[in-house]
Amino acid sequence: MFKLIIALIIVCSVSVAQAETVTKRGIACLSKDSLLQVIRANNENDAQAIKYLFKYNCFVTKPGHSLSILDRTWSGLVKARVYGDSGAFVIWTLNNNIQRY
User: Fold this and answer.
1) Nearest to residue 61, comparing CAs of 13, 92, 24?
2) Where is 27: in which H helix or E strand?
3) Chain centroid to CA 48
4) Which residue from 86, 84, 85, 78 is spatially nearest to 66, judged by alpha carbons?
5) Mean per-residue pLDDT for 69-91?
């Protein structure tokens, strides 16, 4: 829970200009496995799993935040580092939530 709170603080305070930006509200998680689980739960309409994952591992991104891409998978998942005043945090999100500028 503590890591999720820190991630939210960092994502909400990103101000460093990078090569990528979040373009719309989308799902982001602290791990690739959590992102895959929330996608699967959404496809299966598993509200209980979605609620659990958003409580402990996932959150909704806000448009306009800058980030650095660390990895992209062939299936459209993106590992990214977001920067804030208190340091950096790694998240996993979907490729269609990110735009190069």
Assistant:
1) 24
2) strand 27-29
3) 20
4) 84
5) 85
The rounded distance, in Å, linking the Cα atoms of 95 and 92 is 10
Residue 23 has pLDDT above 50, yes or no: yes
Q: How far is CA 54 from CA 4, 11, 67, 80, in A?
A: 9, 15, 21, 19
Longest dimension (CA), the chain: 38
Structure tokens at 8: 């939210």
Phi, psi of 48 (to 5 degrees): -65, -45
Say if residues 46 and 20 touch (Cβ distance below 8 Å): no
pTM of the model: 0.74
Render pLDDT for 90-101 as a digit per residue (tens, 0 to 9): 999 998 888 765
